[in-house]
User: What shape does this take?
Amino acid sequence: MDGHQLYNNLKTINRQKSFRPDYSHIHDTPLGYHEKPGWFARCLNHSMFYVRTRAEYREFMKKRRAADLTGGSSKGPKEPARLSDIPRHASETFRHHITSLASIAQGGNARVVLSSFASLHDPGLNWSDPAHISSLLSAIQKTELFSLKHFTPGLTLEGIFTGFRQYNRLLKAIARRHHTGFVDNALRIPHEDTYFIDRVHFSRKGARRMAENFFPAVLAALKTGPQK
Assistant: This one.
């Protein structure tokens, strides 16, 4: 189980909407009531280019509708203030969900291996000093910061990387408490361009490094008895 649940959880934090454990604060339509897309749309959903282009288009249309309502420009209203800290109920929801997933798997005698979340950017840097950080980043890393802020609209950059560190510590604590395997990929995957295609998704080289990191942990889990 890799740490992408971490990033997806951070994306749901919104200063203007009180966080709810079932994520109904960002999903207006209850789960199960969505119309199933046709086969062509399902095929397109496997394309990262299509998914990201669709997200950009929806954001553009949302700003355009806001401009029509306010009589302003297509830029829409001023960007809402972002949080620099993770709300307690958000981190508790993340902890509860990961613990539940691990416990359900263990209840079925599955072997569980958790992983911390690896990203293109180093969460350990002092992100409160933009000028200093800019001098340390590659061209791709600088470009991907815009995407990171766009797809995590409720948090400042400092807040995003605070969340990375905080949630990675939670993953490690959950693994220790529930006796699962653990791979600290946040430390073991270099924060370098060749390992990533964007802010969070691996290149072929990055995926290979992930597999190499997971292999001994998975092998160890298979050699031991059921996790309890």
Remarks:
- The chain has nine helices and two strands.
- The radius of gyration is 19 Å.
